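User: Fold this; tokens only.

Assistant: Input:
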Amino acid sequence: MFKATLKPVVCAVLLATAGAGFAAEALPEPVRVPAGHSAFLESVGVGEITYECRDNKEKPGTFAWAFVVPVAVLNDMQGKAIGKYYGGPTWEANDGSKVTGKQVAIAPASPGNIPLQLVKAEPAMGKGAMTGVSYIQRLETKGGVAPAATCDASTTGAKQQVKYQAKYVFFKQN
């Protein structure tokens, strides 16, 4: 019963976004999806990124907030939950299908926001909305940058969650 009620929602999202015009030329070159792939699904991830105060490996003797893990609900463009996003990175649809990937590139976003990102997908697990995903873009980011709180020897190991939001656009090979 659960899967049967999900399919119309996923199908509606796919249909609503299949014809959407994504202005690739307006995006920074590093996060553009290669030719031969088409956008088929758009979602908005709303959640938190956990950071931990750690020794800064790039500058020994100093400390910095390190990215630990993201957790977000994936909503369709009308605000209805269609899945979740979590460390891996992994995008999982409510139908149980999921896809992981590896970061290909990032590009700066406006100040105070995590960067735009292009991820190359690994083969999807399960059958459903994530089947056949080839690339995922993270766009229109809001928040998510490391905390402004003090990170030093006295706060090593401290964790903080930072709210963020991003549009995730899923592509399939033509």
